[in-house]
């Protein structure tokens, strides 16, 4: 029997979100209904509301979620009601060329639920990142459910569903930060601080945090930054020079751009050591362009990488990171700035845009 719940809906570009009745169908083949216990307010949800992803309104927002499996559909054998799960938007197919080559974190054909969730009048909703979790129960593909240790509370665990995983993975997976490395992270919001936490977990020797907000730099130190740089008013060359000063004049082994603008990417490019690695995890807009001398690409060597979802494999990474959190080695709880009710999402967008929070988390 379908579930009738309240969900956070974005009906039109730039308009405030609304709390509306949503019909969640019983799970079909390969699907699961999950009782959501917590869901983080991610910048990607705001991108959806602003039309920055696509124009397939109305959207059902929310995707950084954890909860318990309520019901499963036909053919689902690896989940059962009561399982504690983190939702993900990379339910790998196992058959595309990336999966066949042993690189499932690049899967080109990830699964989502086949059935739509709908408004009261039958209008199909577009779930954010194929999840849609700002509601008490949601319908997803069973592959979007990753079982983890239930000792981790949902408000903390759910953050691995997107932003925190993106930052951790940018350092650990894409950047392959290792013991003794020097790392610089440009942009110290939730994703950037997660990258700092990842570099700290990997035992990097030097971690330079760069931002224009002293509040964010203070947060960065809490996650393991050894040096901070307020770049407000500094030229690109001055930022690069400061990164070099913090890294024995050479530049960092890995520089992670968690902002995604041409000027921050250039800072990352020139702020790395020779043969160093640049990781772009901040999301640029389609109109942004780069203009650099081609000889600089050739003469500096190294790697220029983009990190998609932290190049994570949820079935591998989520349980491992939750275990590290429970061991006290990964401070995931520090990302939770506040817990809010479902009707507080629009106000949380404002606080996020102002830089007042790392994560607001809706809890039930």
UniProtKB/TrEMBL annotation:
User: Member of which family?
Assistant: Belongs to the zinc-containing alcohol dehydrogenase family.
> Which UniProt keywords are listed?
Heme, Iron, Metal-binding, NAD, Oxidoreductase, Zinc
Q: Which residues form a coiled coil?
A: none
Q: Which Pfam families match?
A: ADH_N, ADH_zinc_N
Q: Which residue windows are transmembrane per the record?
A: none
**Which EC class heads this enzyme's classification?**
oxidoreductase
Query: What are the GO BP annotations of this UniProt entry?
Result: formaldehyde catabolic process
Cofactor(s) of this protein:
Zn(2+)
Q: Which GO terms describe its cellular component?
A: cytosol
Q: Which GO terms describe its molecular function?
A: electron transfer activity; heme binding; mycothiol-dependent formaldehyde dehydrogenase activity; S-(hydroxymethyl)glutathione dehydrogenase [NAD(P)+] activity; zinc ion binding
Q: What is this protein called?
A: S-(Hydroxymethyl)mycothiol dehydrogenase
Domain Cytochrome c: where?
A: 25-139
In terms of superkingdom, the source organism counts as: Bacteria
Task: State the taxonomy lineage.
Answer: Bacteria, Bacillati, Actinomycetota, Actinomycetes, Pseudonocardiales
């Amino acid at each position: 029997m379908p579930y009738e719940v309240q969900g956070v809906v974005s009906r039109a570009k730039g308009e405030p979100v609304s709390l509306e009745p949503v019909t969640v169908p019983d799970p079909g083949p390969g699907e699961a209904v999950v009782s959501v216990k917590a869901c983080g307010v991610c910048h990607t949800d705001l991108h959806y509301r602003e039309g920055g992803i696509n124009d397939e309104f109305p959207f059902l927002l929310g995707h950084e979620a954890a909860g318990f499996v309520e019901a499963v559909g036909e053919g689902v054998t690896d989940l059962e009601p009561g399982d504690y799960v983190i939702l993900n938007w990379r339910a790998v197919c196992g058959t595309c060329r990336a999966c066949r080559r042993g690189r499932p974190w690049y899967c080109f054909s990830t699964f989502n639920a086949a059935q739509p969730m709908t408004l009261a009048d039958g209008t199909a909703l577009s779930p954010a990142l194929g999840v849609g979790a700002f509601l008490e129960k949601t319908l997803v593909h069973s592959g979007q459910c990753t079982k983890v240790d239930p000792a981790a509370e949902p408000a903390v665990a759910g953050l691995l569903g997107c932003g925190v995983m993106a930052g951790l993975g940018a350092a650990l997976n894409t950047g392959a930060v290792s013991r003794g490395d020097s790392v610089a992270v440009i942009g110290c919001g939730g994703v950037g601080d997660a990258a700092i936490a990842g570099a700290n977990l990997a035992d990097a020797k030097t971690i330079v945090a760069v931002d224009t907000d002293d509040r964010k730099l203070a947060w960065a130190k809490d996650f393991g930054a050894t040096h901070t740089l307020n770049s407000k008013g500094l030229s690109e060359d001055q930022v690069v020079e400061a990164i070099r000063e913090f890294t024995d004049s050479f530049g960092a082994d890995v520089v992670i751009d968690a902002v995604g603008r041409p000027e921050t990417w250039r800072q990352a490019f020139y702020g790395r050591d020779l043969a160093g690695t640049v990781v772009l995890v901040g999301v640029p807009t389609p109109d942004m362009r780069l203009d650099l001398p081609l000889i600089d690409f050739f003469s500096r060597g190294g790697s220029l990488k983009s990190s998609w979802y932290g190049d994570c494999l949820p079935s591998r990474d989520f349980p491992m990171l939750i275990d590290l959190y429970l061991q006290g080695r990964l401070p995931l709880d520090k990302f939770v700035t506040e817990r809010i009710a479902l009707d507080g999402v629009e106000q949380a967008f404002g606080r996020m845009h102002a830089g007042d929070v790392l994560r607001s988390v809706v809890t039930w």
